[in-house]
Amino acid sequence: MITAMAGFSNKFRITGQTYSRKVDVDVLSVLGSLGASIHKICTDIRLLANQKELEEPFEVDQIGSSAMPYKRNPMRSERCCSIARHVMVLVADAQQTAAVQWLERSLDDSANRRISIAEAFLAADTILNTLQNICEGLVVYPKVIEKHVTQELPFLASENIIMSMVKLGANRQECHEQMRVLSMEAGAQVKTFGLENDLVDRIKASEYFLPIREKLDELLNPVTFVGRATPQVEGFLEKEVYPAIESYKLDLDASAQLTL
């Protein structure tokens, strides 16, 4: 009756003076899971920024590093990772509180909850706002990505080259050994001498791989290595993401404003 008068449509069926502290565990677990996801996203951004494949938005007068003027450190992602870890460990506060309730309850719960629950929501809001700002201004460098793919593509294509040879009648083990030797030689050029990956040139110069020499460009087409990535992403967006954000579409035009 009291909850109905207060306007609540649902209520806890079994409770005393307080609701079960397991509710706090459920709530903070969701926020902790969010923190883990954001940490993962921002860690990937930091790794790709190190490879110069992308960059966070960078202010005109922003200082990337106090020691090295040329650097453009991904400070937003670093901040997200740092705060996300705090959100993740706050879940343990709720778990500990729920675990040590004596019989119906223990009076040592309230002080902890006032800190952990509030901080979890405030920190989650902070990293969400920061991640939105990152995504809105993310800069991708396709030419750098193309360079990295080109450098590694001959190694990635080795299995396709072997299979193409086998289809023409070659012995797989023998073909594998030929490819292994050439790959080790090309790898030594890259790692020992700092030279470009010349595996393709070595394959073209090998009499053994003569039967597929004319097909090398086709076998080295990067598009053939993406697998089902495109339909998987499109399907995920169509079936999962778009329905989830439909009820919030009126708010999606708002941008995240940060004061750095």
From TrEMBL:
> Which BP terms does GO give this entry?
'de novo' AMP biosynthetic process
One of its Pfam families is ADSL_C
UniProt-listed SUPFAM superfamilies: L-aspartase-like
What the entry lists under PANTHER family is as follows: ADENYLOSUCCINATE LYASE
One of the record's GO cellular component terms: cytosol
User: Domain Adenylosuccinate lyase C-terminal: where?
Assistant: 153-237
Keywords (alphabetical) are: Lyase
InterPro entries (UniProt xref): AdenyloSucc_lyase_C, Fumarate_lyase_CS, Fumarate_lyase_fam, Fumarate_lyase_N, L-Aspartase-like
Mind telling me what this protein is named?
A: Adenylosuccinate lyase
Q: Which domain of life is it from?
A: Eukaryota
Q: Name one GO molecular function term.
A: N6-(1,2-dicarboxyethyl)AMP AMP-lyase (fumarate-forming) activity
